[in-house]
Amino acid sequence: MFRPLELFIGLRYTRAKRRNQFISFISTVSIVCIAISVIALITVMSVMNGFDFQMKSRILGAVSQATISSVDGSIHDVSKALQIAQANPHVLGAAPFVESQAMLLARRSGAALVRGIDPAQESKVVDIGQHMVDGKLSELTPGSWNIVLGRDLANQLGVAVGDRVTMAVQEMRATPMGGVPRFRSFHVVGTFQLGMEQFDSGLALVNIVDAEKLNDLSGPMGIRLKLDDLFNARPVAHELANQLGQFYAIRTWMDDNANLFHALSMEKMVMFIILSLIVLVAVINLISMLMMLVTDKQADIAILRTLGATPRSIMGVFMVQGLLVGFVGIGLGVGLGSLLSWRLPGIVKWIEHTFHVTFLSPDVYYISEVPSRLQLNDVVWVALLTFAFSLLATLYPAWRASRTQPAQALRYE
Question: What is the pTM of this model?
Answer without folding.
Answer: 0.67
